[in-house]
Amino acid sequence: MKIIKTIMTIIFLCTIIGCGSSSGTVTAQQRLLIVKITEPQDLGGVDKDELSYQAVLYQGTTLESGESAFGPAELASYNADEDLYYSRIDNILDGAYTLQIRLVSNDPALAVSTSLGLMNITQTITISGNETTVEANIDQWTAEAFDDDGDGVFNYDEIVFGTDPNNTDTDGDGISDSIDAFPINASESYDIDADGLPDGQDNDTDNDGLSNQAEKSAGTNPLNSDSDYDGVLDGKDNCPVAENASQTDTDGDGLGDACDPDKDGDGLTNSQEAQKGTNELKQDTDGDACLDGDDMFPNNAGECNDNDGDGIGDNADADDDNDGINDVIEIKQGTNPLLPDTDGDGVKDKVDNCPLLSNPGQANNDGDSMGDDCDLDDDNDGVADTEEEVIGDDGFITNRLLSDTDGDGFDDSKDNCATLYNVLQTDTDGDGFGDVCDCGPTDFKINQLSPDLPDPQAIDSNCDGIDGNRYKAVFVSTAGT
Known about the structure:
Elements: E1 6-13, E2 31-38, E3 51-59, E4 70-74, E5 76-79, E6 84-89, E7 95-105, H1 108-114, E8 121-128, E9 131-134, H2 155-161, H3 212-218, H4 270-276, H5 327-333, H6 385-388
Antiparallel strand pairs: 1-2, 2-6, 3-4, 3-7, 5-6, 7-8, 8-9
């Protein structure tokens, strides 16, 4: 009695996920043996449910004495309608194997009549790496025929991945097993970059080198590793939202030319360069060592700057600051030829009576060409301001703003008594001090500048008002500091 008409055998390599819900973790040397057994309609009165099958797998074409076989392994049915059976067989190495299927009957009478070895059907197969080639001249098994739940995942794959061949959504998360990256985890469904990390926990969902937050800032698609489809991952693309497979970056600023508003980094945008007629890929179009963005005349190698903005380059402009003074003259007088108001007091150099010293009020007591702040003789009396305000070589304290302090008609520099009215200017002893201010008018050795050593009697021998020389004295307060 020939019970089995056709046996089609397919060996699948289980990866590190379990083979079936209760199979546990499968190592790299464990494989899932799937066997389809087609039985005749007439089993000679034997109930199909009373039959079971075992598989024996061994290397080579015959099992030599002393060699071990992988099995027997009980074949469990997971698709009774298709007579499809499976078993996990461990420690299978690459090579040629012989598969032996034998019938086992639960009916003792049948078992005796079949002698438990009646149906020995062998087929040589070759296991190579992760794939198994069935070396048989038999009809090929069409896998698509075995997808009981119609979810697009074949029954044997569902067994491998631990999903239910009769349930399109094993974990009940609303996502079909065929597109669910975690079909037995109801809390996770997607893993776009296939890195084993659920998208909900993955900071770089598409694994392009840019974090999801960085992609949001850059305007790229966190679900697409190459947002602009130019063949360069977003994380390495210098223009991730503009197609630029060449990654050209003329100015080396990290921004590719395809998205850089200033390709050559010269300070002019590409559109401005087009308007000016300059080269958008060359920082110094006219070659005058002045970047186009800083060059007032980017197409004129002889000019770069126009300090006063009058349209004439500084090299050709005789008055670069347009203050009315020739640049050569400004250099000679010490003012800045590039600043119309060198001292910054609000008065242009040309009309400033102290162009090197800030004096916004422009005070000029004597009406000459120099303001008081820079005029050494504000009253133009011939006595320096510093001399008038102290007892100096002339012996008088005069007003630096009055050329004739005592109003007697003689300038302080010519008045022999500059602080006392003396129109006659009489100087009997000829010592330079008029009689009206000389305590020794007949003795040329006695006057305000004569030596007067301090003495116990405190005698003022030179008539300067103190015992000693007033203009050389140090006065000390008798109270306080």
